[in-house]
Write a sequence for this structure.
């Protein structure tokens, strides 16, 4: 069977279609949300206040833009942005344009429900872990936050909120927890958003830092933020009856300025915190009280569970190390392997 010959017109049409496809594939990403006719100002440095998805609030850090907030779109090639990110942006009306993200000095991340790593906040240098007698606190969750902070080199403090509820049945557990963490060396503030206890001391701890509040929903993060910065007007949720698990009141991380100096990022309330992106040896470095005993086990690949002459197990037996902290470490490692 003879091969069909294409006409000159057909060959020209095929070549035109191929050229068009090549041009489309090599063209830069189309930024459909950005008005191509907008007059862009020269590039400037800004900081992400909040990412709403399609739009981003940017705080200007230079020249006449300093201290003012601008609603922006971002170029398609720019990496995902979170509160605290420093960016290169250009002013325009009605929306500015983010053209680049500067390198992060630190980032707090957690995997989403699909296992993909998602950043929560960037350029944080202090993490405030909020706990309370209600909902009931759990050391495993606190240790997850602490490990994440230590691995990133972020200084962590603990805020025991609702400390005025002295008769609450969980208060004894709260006191035991915070005393244990104070023994390790962590700073613990006893505060009450309701009674305004410890707010001045909290201001001092957060001054001149970029901090983030994390903790279970319902522990009072938003109420504390409203006392620290009344103009923030962060939504405050009511406790769910029965299980005493707080309702989510914040949907995206947002950065606020504090009147006494410093910046605060309010993160979405979460009941669980995964560290599946960290290797076991990275997790070990996240437990600061383990550090004096690391490298002293008989076996280099010691799992710190049952091996003879394990330095961590020996420290637990001698009351030099918390058995609960070691158990929490094992639970985190096990959760990563399932």
């Amino acid at each position: 069977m003879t091969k069909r010959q294409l006409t000159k017109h057909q060959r020209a049409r095929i070549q035109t279609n191929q050229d068009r496809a090549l041009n489309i594939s090599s063209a830069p990403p189309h930024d459909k949300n950005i008005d191509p006719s907008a007059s862009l100002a020269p590039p400037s440095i800004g900081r992400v206040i909040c990412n709403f998805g399609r739009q981003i609030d940017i705080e200007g850090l230079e020249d006449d833009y300093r201290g003012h907030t601008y609603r922006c779109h971002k170029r398609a090639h720019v990496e995902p942005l979170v509160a605290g990110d420093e960016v290169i942006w250009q002013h325009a009306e009605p929306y500015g344009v983010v053209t680049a993200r500067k390198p992060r000095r630190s980032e707090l991340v957690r995997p989403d429900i699909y296992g993909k790593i998602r950043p929560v906040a960037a350029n944080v240098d202090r993490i405030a872990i909020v706990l309370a007698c209600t909902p009931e606190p759990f050391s495993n969750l606190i240790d997850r936050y602490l490990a994440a902070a230590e691995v990133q080199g972020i200084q962590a403090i603990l805020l025991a909120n609702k400390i005025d509820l002295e008769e609450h049945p969980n208060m004894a557990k709260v006191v035991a927890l915070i005393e244990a963490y104070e023994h390790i060396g962590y700073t613990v503030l006893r505060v009450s958003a309701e009674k305004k206890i410890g707010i001045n001391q909290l201001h001092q701890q957060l001054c001149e830092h970029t901090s983030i509040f994390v903790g279970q929903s319902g522990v009072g993060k938003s109420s504390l933020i409203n006392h620290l910065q009344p103009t923030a007007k962060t939504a405050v949720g009511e406790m769910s009856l029965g299980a005493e698990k707080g309702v989510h009141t914040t949907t995206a991380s947002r950065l606020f300025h504090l009147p006494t100096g410093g910046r605060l990022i309010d993160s979405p309330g979460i009941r669980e915190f995964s560290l599946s992106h960290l290797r076991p040896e990275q997790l070990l470095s996240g437990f600061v009280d383990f550090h004096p005993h690391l490298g002293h086990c008989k076996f280099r690949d010691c799992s710190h569970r049952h091996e003879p002459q394990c330095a961590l197990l020996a420290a637990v037996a001698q009351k030099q190390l918390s058995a609960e902290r070691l158990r929490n470490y094992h639970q985190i490692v096990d959760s990563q392997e399932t």
In short: The chain has a mean pLDDT of 84.
